[in-house]
């Protein structure tokens, strides 16, 4: 998809990958950008920095009525939605001990928010015979998020849902991509490192930590080629092959990494990446 003159909605648009997508879409010539976030004021600040084509709104992606209202308002204002980026996500930093409320929130934000968005935007996209769904799913959805059971499980579900959408609707003109980065210099990773969460330490030790702008550039390149899997960290494809070909060996390697990290003191968060 060429983003010139496109209308896009981006959830989780107040920072991190969402804000970077907004900046990149604007640079690509988008016609209008709606940045939605639970923190509406922060989304508005990002929109102001992006320029007059963008505006920020408050949105709880776990509330389907709010998602439907946002889609309807955007379609009334601009006539259509060409791209919907379901980008909001949450991590827990915990395992089976995470309480039911934590599991439910991960399920609501990381999976059901994608379902709500698809339900809301698909009718008009199918009627027009075109549209694009970009789902931020994480490499955790292809591999595993060591140290964060709810994140790992829900990101696998997010990839599965995106694949189902692609298989079901591509022949009707709707393209779907699953954006699956590994380590990204966002508050989610920084907070996890500061708290000493094992999962964040594994991510930081497993490869380069990209800036959000690098991830956004990879997303735009992948969308231009209409690829289903967009991997800002190309090595994730190799990891996935190794995992599929030798699951026992793959798990053994991860356990060795975990043992090494547990035997060493947690390091401070890395410096912020330069965009």
UniProtKB/TrEMBL annotation:
GO function terms (MF aspect): oxidoreductase activity
Bias (Pro residues): 266-275
Keywords in alphabetical order: Oxidoreductase
Residue ranges of domain Ketoreductase in the record: 6-184
UniProt region (Disordered), positions on chain: 243-275
Gene3D superfamilies: NAD(P)-binding Rossmann-like Domain (3.40.50.720)
Keyword Calcium belongs to the record: no
InterPro entries hit by this protein: KR_dom, NAD(P)-bd_dom_sf, Sc_DH/Rdtase_CS, SDR_fam
Matching Pfam families: adh_short
SUPFAM superfamilies per the UniProt record, alphabetical: NAD(P)-binding Rossmann-fold domains (SSF51735)
Family from the record: Belongs to the short-chain dehydrogenases/reductases (SDR) family.
Protein name: Dehydrogenase
Organism whose genome encodes this protein: Micromonospora craterilacus
């Amino acid at each position: 998809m060429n983003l010139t003159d496109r209308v896009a909605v981006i959830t989780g648009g107040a920072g991190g990958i969402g804000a970077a997508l907004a900046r990149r879409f604007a640079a690509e010539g988008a016609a209008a950008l709606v940045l939605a976030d639970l923190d509406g004021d922060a989304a508005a600040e990002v929109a102001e920095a992006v320029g007059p084509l963008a505006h920020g709104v408050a949105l709880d992606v776990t509330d389907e009525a709010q998602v439907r209202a946002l889609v309807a308002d955007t379609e009334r204002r601009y006539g259509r939605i060409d791209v919907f980026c379901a980008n909001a996500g949450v991590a827990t930093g915990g395992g089976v001990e995470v309480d039911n409320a934590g599991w439910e929130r991960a399920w609501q934000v990381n999976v059901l928010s994608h379902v709500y968005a698809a339900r809301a935007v698909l009718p008009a996209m199918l009627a027009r015979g075109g549209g694009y769904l970009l789902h931020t799913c994480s490499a955790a959805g292809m591999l595993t998020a060591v140290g964060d059971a709810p994140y790992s499980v829900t990101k696998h579900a997010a990839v599965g849902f995106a694949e189902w959408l692609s298989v079901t609707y591509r022949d009707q003109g709707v393209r779907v991509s699953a954006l699956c980065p590994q380590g990204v210099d966002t508050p989610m990773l920084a907070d996890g490192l500061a708290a000493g969460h094992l999962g964040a330490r594994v991510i930081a030790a497993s490869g380069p930590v990209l800036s959000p702008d690098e991830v956004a550039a990879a997303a735009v390149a992948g969308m231009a080629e209409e690829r289903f899997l967009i991997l800002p960290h190309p090595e994730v494809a190799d990891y996935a092959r190794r995992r599929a070909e030798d699951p026992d060996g793959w798990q053994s390697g991860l356990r060795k990494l975990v043992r090494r990290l547990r035997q060493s003191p947690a390091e401070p968060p890395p410096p912020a990446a330069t965009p």
